[in-house]
Amino acid sequence: MVMAASVVVAVGAATGLLTAFDDRRGADEARPSEATGSPNLRYLPILPSASPSATRSAPPTSASPTPTPKRPTPTPSPTRTERKQQPAVVSARLYRHPDSQVLEWVRDNPADPRHAVIESRIAAQPAAVWFADYTPDTITDRVRAVTSGGSALGRVPVVVPYAIPDRDCGGYSEGGAPSLDAYDAWIDRFAAGLGSGDVIVVLEPDSVAQSECLSAGARADRFASLARAGRAFKEANPKARVYYDAGHSGWNAPGKQAQWLKQAGAASTASSDGVFSNVSNFHATTDEIAYDRQVLDALGGPPGLGAVIDTSRNGAGAPPDGQWCDPDGRKLGRAPTLGTGEARIDAYLWVKLPGESDGCKGRPGTFTASYAYDLAR
Fold first, then answer.
1. pTM for the full model?
2. Catalytic residue (choose from 112, 206, 245, 292)
3. What percent of the chain has a predicted confidence (pLDDT) above 70?
């Protein structure tokens, strides 16, 4: 199977995740804050995951070398036109959580010449909040802090549970719960924080598309836990909209992906509202729309199932050379919205926060202003 990589950036509140990073940073980076006794929702980096596609021979593993960072290029000053340009229209119904690395950078660097562009085109947009650390004792309160914040404003938060065992097949983002039984219990506590308002759940990026590394038995067990997770979310909050991992248009064939998705509960309204694709990747929205519709057709299920697409960094499409690590020439994609105007496409979301590095233009998972500025220009 031919593979390539796209990076998933995860969020947590475990102090242990911070030990891999030091304080030697400049104004170009926003470092995640230290965990405190209260729920901390800042983006904390862990090693990135590798999502396959058709342009690379093998995924990185835990033994793979870290990508060699590129020498930073000089940062140009924004033009007068760039400073005056307004951000793309954002759906008023999606929630922008007030605590993220890009917002930290904006607050800390008001005089930076890139400030206006990054603030208006990235920081102003609603983005998903990830929960990647296995912390059963605090997960309910941390999820509730996000969902209640959205409900208070009448807006829809997007949350990403990312703690499946054997996550990333032992690659850069390895980790997760110690067992499926522990994961199921963590999911129940996650569900308890979903509240009663509208919320979108992007359930476990890569968990279905990147399951071929598992044995048939382990894959079946994982899919059973994913189906159970969707049911738990729906039972806890009937307004929760749950989407399952469809990979992206450069990865598995639609029929193969749909077969796995069906086993994971994605075809049942008791657990699913459809599928998501392109998380942390660069494939063009038009390609993802066509692919997601093919997956949904092959999946079957009720006609109400739809798809959501991560458009955060796909404005220029995927690089022709298959580069996955902060590739040059990429652009911001379509603004997050719940009104796509496309049949069966429920939303365009920013699941990956633009400017958070894959590991080549900054430390993995860390917001890097030069990268963000390149994407936003």
1. 0.81
2. 206
3. 76
